Amino acid sequence: METVNIHQAKTHLSRLIDRLASGGGFIIAKAGKPVAKIVPLSAPEAGKAKRLGFMTGQLKVPDDFDRMGGDEIESLFGGQS
């Protein structure tokens, strides 16, 4: 995300707003220190994006998933070839 100083933000406000309309955001800094993060209204709020369960019903976990490859793993850790 690009950082612009206050003077640049005032000078190029129209260009920055156009960037927001296309989905991009920017950070405004004062004396090099970030003071505001500008994002489009359609952007999800920080920490609000829902990720849990986003692939529900699309994957099938076998009943024996915790035992898969057990013999091979045992031989590798047991030092057998």
Automatic annotation (TrEMBL):
SUPFAM superfamilies xref list: YefM-like
Entries under InterPro entries matching the protein: Antitoxin_Phd/YefM, phD-YefM_TA_antitoxins, YefM-like_sf
Coiled-coil ranges (or none): none
Assigned keywords, A-Z: Plasmid
Membership in a protein family: Belongs to the phD/YefM antitoxin family.
Known role: Antitoxin component of a type II toxin-antitoxin (TA) system.
Protein name: Antitoxin
Organism: Sphingopyxis macrogoltabida (Sphingomonas macrogoltabidus)
